[in-house]
Amino acid sequence: MSAESLYALLERITNLLRNEERAVGLEHGLQPVHLQALHYLSVCNRYSNTPAGLTEYLGLTKGTVSQTITLLEGKGLVGKESSSTDRRVTHLHLTGEGRALLGALLPPPLFSRTLEGLPDGGSGLEASLTGLLRALLVTHGQPSFGVCSSCRHFQREAQGRFRCGLTQEPLSRADSALLCREHSAPDVPAS
User: Fold this and answer.
1) The pLDDT value given to residue 191
2) Nearest CA to 150 among 117, 186, 125?
């Protein structure tokens, strides 16, 4: 497959997904960027649930992200909390209402129904797209925002405990499954 034809397919899929996000968010006064912010906050860890983390993940300006946070906070979907260790840092979290709305809207029902019709529910497609995403992130020098348990800093300790080797803080089992902006892929041994 040529780069042009693959790009055209991915571009069309992206447009269709954004149209679905627009459609499901419309009745709640939400644009796709708002849903993307809610989704990110639902899957990121305590090192990444900041306005800076959200800005970096979405690849948008600080101003756009600030407006997004203000709108979501005004709708009661997101809350803010000052860091207990650094007063300059604000942590964002989904409210119960935000979590419930996100669960009802994403992924859009049309997308879920479409996946059901794919061989193996799309697992082969998922593996291919994951590889493509990793390659794009490396090529562009962008952070991976991977889950803690796949990071080079992730440490397994005795009695099923986990620790971040970068911050030296303990991690819960739930933490280990969340996205982190400090994620660093493990070194791949030379073959």
Assistant:
1) 44
2) 186
